[in-house]
Structure formats: structure tokens, C-alpha cells
Design brief:
single chain, alpha+beta, 6 domains, eight-stranded mixed β-sheet
Length: 698
């Protein structure tokens, strides 16, 4: 029997050797594909997304570590390949002594662990509800605005908003704090720490503390939950500490370096942008008028007109500069960007196209998030606003004071940036690890929590049944969390909104004319299922309907504004510019010692005013002292200031013709044309022809 058994075993050994041999000499291509299907899928996905550089790094990394593993180098240096033989796990005993020393005060750490468990449970609920809410937004996000996959990767250098060096520093601190906290709570529960280490995938992507698995299984559930909660809980503590250091210590100490207002944003195609003004310039003067706050800037601008040229003095990254700005029209800006806020008085007012803010409000909102109209969300999203790390145009505006003022400027800003990113990445690591999905800490906490509830309320249930319920529930939640995260990438691309075409259009009978001329406006060529058409003619008159008509009694440049709405009350706003030149004529008689006044308003778009006058002396008997002439004074006032005044002796029955012309666009406002008899007997008659030419000055 023994001989027979040996005879049967020998061929099996040879067959095994034949199966092993091809691994040394090469395997068929289909075997390679089957063994590396996961890696091939990930690599193909990266290429599909256009991540060519990352795909190259990925290929080089996976090929390198697998070669090193085959050559025995991985095992030689106490490392392992995990998760598809793509992640490198490095184990070390470094840090064990530190954990032993810190964990000696066990009552303290147990109380801290209790707080962390409760905190993580609350965060877990919040984060899961947040993911659910974000999932519902997929139907509202346009397909073209779907989030980039890069934004879902929290690794410095890959995520476009996380700076490389500050990100690496903060991520290392977050991982070390996270894992050392696990180790401390392990020793508090008298669980042996076998090793500490790092998880590598091109970059360090995680750290770990490896407690003894058998001892962990025998831990009380609450102690094990403390152990798991220690990681995200400690990250949240570090986030709070460094948030305080960043805001209440570093930013709170900042004061504006100079007086002025900050250009928060600059609108393209308007006067400021065309002159070269940019965001984050400090405006100190406008037309030699000092600007110290936003209110002063607004008051100065309200006294200007479209087309006016103003000198703007600024500090650009600390350097003084002056720009000549041809002001645009305030009305056209609001019509284009904020039609609901447009008012006809805005037309003709000077507009620089710059939103300003007091510099102190910027630092106040950072030092005290949640106050002064700011929110914690704005605080967290500083990287997306390109305000972290602090750019040069920010650091040039402020300087540290008080105790922090003793720190060299370069070091101050390095510390401020580092504090923010330590806060930010610890917050993200803590929130992410609280999710109820294995292998995240929140998943294990949830599993032990459910097991504890079943033990308490279903004591008669078999252990196998309990384990089955927990495994199914935890598995479902893990899949749900993964799906909700992936859904943020693919959801908008699959079910996102399609662009709704709403394009109001105006067909006008003309662009210019005179007061009293009738213009027609038609919106029938608009794109969209509009049901209402509302018109504003800029002179206080409005109308409704697809086609309307209107005339203007006063000269000027008017914006005809069309607001077209569909059945869902979605709207499109379009405007058409009409230039109305003003013409007027009249006549009158002035008795001796009296006067007559003709009043007209000239708006800021005036290009030229021409007034033609005829003065005719009294043809009756004696006139004046010698009965030969009428003594007449003609005065033209603008807002109470005389810009023309002349006296004439007009012979009896004769006519004096006068022409007045001016093309100064700043002579706007209320005009008074005054005819005055200079004595008690000098009667006369007059007639006039008023022509005002208007044009778009900007």
C-alpha cells in the first residue's frame, strides 16, 4: 500500500512543478490579464479621464513594487504588498515606547474615549445625511458642471486645491495623530500593539497601528468602540486647535498696511478692467479724493457720469500706481448682470466695474467665521477661493501686529498657511473616517454599536443570527456610502439637467430718433417657451405684451428692458439701447421789468446742446429812455450756475439772432433759459429752437 501511495503521489508533484514553472518562464497573456484585471481597469479609467501623467506614475509604481516583491526586497525590509499587490505596507516598532508612556493615565483616556465615541456617532449621522442630500442634487446640476474626479482625491499634488508641501505636512500630521490615538486607546484597554507603519501608494496615503487581533476580539464592545473612535476624534481635536491658532492668533493680529478700499472683484469689459485694474488692489484715491472706506468710494462714484475720465490711485502688491479710467454706464451693468435690481436712475451714472470692500472685513470674517455675515462653509472653502495658501496680493495688504508682529514676515505667513492646512486636512480625515463604512473607523464603530443593541434587546437570538444581521447591515451601509460618493461623480453626468434655452430677443424699429418719434419693439423672435413679456422704457413707463410701441418726451439714451418669463417663472432679460435727440421750439413775450424762464433737463449722455434765439424789440411807441431800443439780458443756468449771460440793445421792431452751443458733457442737470427785461418799459418778444444731441459716451 505504501509503495502504491508513493506511485500515485509522484505524478501529482510533477504536475504542480509544471504549473509553477511557467511563472518563471512567462505566462500566457490571458493569465496576466486575469491576474491584473483590477489594475488594468483602474489604469484604463485614469486614461479615459485624461489623467495621463497619473496613469504613467501608477504604471511605474505598480510595476516597480511587484518586481521588488518578486525579487524578495519587500519581505527583506519588513514590508508587505496589500490590496491587489499595489499598496505598500511598511511596519516598524518606532513609537511604541511613546504610546506606552502617554497611555499610563488610563482613567483620563477612558473619559476622553467616551466623548469621542459620542462625537463620532453624531458626525457619522451628519456625514451620511450630507451624502444623501448631495445625491439629490445630481438632478439639479448641469451635466457640464459635474465635479471633477480629481476633487474627490484628498492627496496633495493630485487634488488641484491642496498645495503639495503644506498638504504633505498636514496629511502626515493627520495620519500620525490618527494612528497614535488608536495605539494609545489600545494600550488603555491592555491590547498589545504589534507594530506601527505607513501605507504607501506613490505617496503616503495612510498610517496604521496594528493591535493584536485576537486580543481585540476579546475586548469589551465599548472599549473597542473607544479604540476606533480615537482616530477621527483626535483629528477633530487637532482641527479645532489649529483652527483657533490660525484664526484667533494669526489672522486676528493682522491689520491693513494702508488706508483704502479693496477691489474685491473686477468686471471685464467695463472701465476699470479696460484701464488695467485688478482684484486685490487697494484703492486709495479717486480724482485726488481720498478713499478710506467703501461708503466714501460709493459717494464719490455717485457724483460721476458715464464717459467721464477719472484718475484712480492704487497700491498693487504694495507698489503705488495710477490708472486713468473711462467710466462705463452703471445702468448697462445692472441690466446685464442684475436686471432685477436695475432702476432707471442708474442710466448715465459713472461705473468703474469694481466691487469694493473694507480690508478689515476680510480679516474679520477669517478671524471670526460665522460673524459679520460670514459662514463656517466660507471658512472651509478658502482653498477654492484661492485664498489658501495666502497669495502675495493678500500678504501685501496686511501686516501682523502685537506679539505676532515680532515674528519675521516670511515665517509668519508660512506658519499661518501651515496652521490652516493642518486644520483643514485633520477635519477632512476626521469627517471621512467617521463614515459608517468598513474599513473606515465609523464602520467598525457602527458594527459594534448594532451588536450591542442586539445583545441588549435580542438576548434570545443566536449569535450566528446576530452576526449575520450585523454583517448584512454593515455591508449595505458600506456599499451605500461608496455608491453615494461615486454618485457625485457620475450622477450629474447621467441624470443632470439639460440646459434650458431662454433667450429673449428684441427687434426694434430703430436705434435713434427725436423726442415724440414712435418706436416699436417686438419679442416674437425670442428663444424659449415664454408666456409673459414685461417692458421697461427707462423713463418711468412700462408695458406688457409681445409687441409694444413707445415714444419719449425727453432726450437722452434709454435702455428698453425686456423681461420674458416662462411658465416656471424662469426669465431671460434683454435690453435695447435707444438714443433720443431732443428738439423743442417756442416763443413768448416779456413785459418791461419782467422775465420768462424756459426749464429743461439734460441727462449725462448729452454730446452737444445748441440753442437758437431770436429777440425782437417792441414795435409800440416809446421804448426805453430814448424810445429807440429794448434792453434785454439772456442768461443760461445749469443747476443754478450761469454758463452764459449777455445783454442786448434791440432796436424798435428789429430782431437780434443769438446762437449758443456747448459740447461739455459734464454740463448736465436742470437748465434754465432766462429772458429778462432790464427796465420797466422795455417790452420784447422772443422765440427759440432748442436742439440737444445725445450719444453713448461709453
Amino acid at each position: 500500500m505504501a509503495a502504491k501511495k508513493n506511485q500515485t503521489e509522484t505524478p501529482q508533484t510533477e504536475e504542480v512543478e509544471k504549473e509553477i514553472l511557467p511563472e518563471l518562464t512567462g505566462l500566457p497573456i490571458e493569465v496576466h490579464i486575469r491576474r491584473h484585471i483590477q489594475f488594468i481597469f483602474v489604469l484604463t479609467f485614469c486614461i479615459y479621464l485624461g489623467w495621463y501623467l497619473f496613469a504613467a506614475f501608477l504604471l511605474a509604481w505598480v510595476t516597480g513594487v511587484r518586481w521588488a516583491d518578486n525579487e524578495g526586497y519587500i519581505e527583506k525590509y519588513n514590508m508587505d504588498l496589500v490590496w491587489g499587490r499595489s499598496f505598500l505596507m511598511w511596519r516598524t516598532d518606532w513609537g511604541k515606547n511613546f504610546i506606552e508612556k502617554v497611555s499610563k493615565n488610563k482613567p483620563f483616556w477612558r473619559r476622553v474615549g467616551d466623548v469621542w465615541v459620542v462625537t463620532v456617532f453624531l458626525i457619522m449621522i451628519f456625514m451620511f445625511l450630507l451624502l444623501l442630500w448631495q445625491a439629490t442634487l445630481a438632478w439639479q446640476i448641469p451635466k457640464s458642471s459635474a465635479v471633477s474626479p480629481k476633487m474627490m482625491i484628498g492627496l496633495p499634488g493630485l487634488n488641484p486645491v491642496i498645495p503639495l508641501w503644506y498638504g504633505i505636512l498636514a496629511l502626515v500630521i493627520a495620519m500620525v495623530v490618527h494612528e497614535f490615538s488608536h495605539g494609545i486607546l489600545s494600550r488603555v484597554a491592555d491590547v498589545k500593539v504589534k507594530a506601527l507603519g505607513l501605507l504607501m501608494f506613490i505617496f503616503p496615503v495612510g498610517a496604521f497601528v496594528e493591535p493584536d487581533e485576537e486580543e481585540m476580539k476579546n475586548m469589551k464592545k465599548w472599549e473597542r468602540m473607544r479604540l476606533y473612535a480615537a482616530g477621527p476624534g483626535s483629528n477633530m481635536v487637532i482641527a479645532i486647535i489649529f483652527s483657533f491658532l490660525f484664526s484667533s492668533v494669526m489672522v486676528e493680529s493682522l491689520e491693513p498696511s494702508n488706508e483704502g478700499v479693496l477691489s474685491a472683484s473686477v468686471v471685464i469689459d467695463y472701465g476699470g478692467a479696460e484701464a488695467g485694474l485688478e482684484p486685490w488692489m487697494l484703492i486709495t484715491e479717486v480724482n485726488e479724493q481720498t478713499v478710506t472706506n467703501a461708503e466714501e468710494f460709493s459717494n464719490i462714484m455717485n457724483e460721476t457720469y458715464a464717459g467721464q475720465i477719472v484718475n484712480v490711485s492704487v497700491l498693487n502688491k504694495g507698489n503705488p500706481e495710477t490708472y486713468q479710467v473711462t467710466l462705463s454706464d452703471k445702468g448697462s451693468y445692472y441690466l446685464k448682470y442684475y436686471p432685477d435690481s436695475y432702476e432707471s436712475w442708474m442710466s448715465g451714472k459713472g461705473f468703474m466695474g469694481i466691487a469694493v470692500v473694507d480690508p478689515g472685513l476680510v480679516t474679520d470674517s477669517l478671524a471670526n467665521p460665522g460673524s459679520n455675515g460670514g459662514t463656517m462653509l466660507q471658512y472651509i472653502t478658502l482653498p477654492f477661493q484661492k485664498l489658501q495658501p495666502f497669495p502675495e496680493h493678500f500678504t501685501a495688504l496686511f501686516e501682523p501686529t502685537g506679539l505676532t508682529g515680532a515674528i519675521p514676515d516670511s515665517l509668519f505667513w508660512i506658519l499661518a498657511n501651515a496652521f490652516y492646512w493642518i486644520f483643514w486636512l485633520n477635519l477632512m480625515v476626521g469627517l471621512t473616517n467617521a463614515l459608517p463604512a468598513v474599513p473606515l473607523d465609523g464602520g467598525f464603530i457602527f458594527a459594534d454599536g448594532v451588536t450591542g443593541v442586539l445583545d441588549k434587546f435580542k438576548s434570545g437570538m443566536s449569535q450566528a443570527r446576530k452576526e449575520g444581521i450585523v454583517d448584512n447591515l454593515v455591508g449595505f451601509l458600506a456599499f451605500s456610502v461608496l455608491f453615494l460618493i461615486v454618485w457625485q461623480l457620475i450622477g450629474p453626468r447621467l441624470v443632470g439637467t439639460e440646459a434650458v434655452v431662454l433667450n429673449a430677443n428684441i427687434d426694434a424699429s430703430g436705434d435713434s430718433g427725436f423726442n415724440g418719434d414712435l418706436f416699436t419693439f417686438d419679442a416674437s423672435n425670442s428663444e424659449g417657451d415664454f408666456v409673459t413679456y414685461e417692458w421697461d422704457f427707462g423713463d418711468g413707463n412700462v408695458a406688457e405684451g409681445q409687441s409694444v410701441s413707445h415714444n419719449w418726451s425727453e432726450g437722452g439714451v434709454y435702455f428698453v428692458v425686456l423681461t420674458a418669463k416662462d411658465a416656471s417663472d424662469r426669465q431671460s432679460v434683454e435690453f435695447h439701447q435707444v438714443t433720443i435727440d431732443y428738439q423743442d421750439s417756442g416763443s413768448g413775450e416779456v413785459n418791461g421789468g419782467g422775465q420768462d424762464t424756459i426749464t429743461r433737463n439734460v441727462n449725462p449722455y448729452v454730446n452737444e446742446v445748441n440753442i437758437y434765439m431770436n429777440l425782437t424789440g417792441d414795435s409800440d411807441a416809446a421804448i426805453g429812455n430814448n424810445g429807440a431800443s429794448s434792453d434785454i439780458t439772456v442768461t443760461i443756468e445749469v443747476d443754478g450756475q450761469a454758463i452764459f449771460s449777455e445783454s442786448y440793445d434791440v432796436n424798435k421792431g428789429s430782431t437780434e439772432s443769438i446762437q449758443f452751443s456747448i459740447n461739455d458733457s459734464e454740463t448736465v442737470g436742470e437748465w434754465n433759459l432766462i429772458f429778462e427785461s432790464n427796465d420797466g418799459v422795455s417790452d420784447f418778444t422772443y422765440d427759440y429752437n432748442w436742439l440737444s444731441d445725445f450719444e453713448v459716451s461709453s
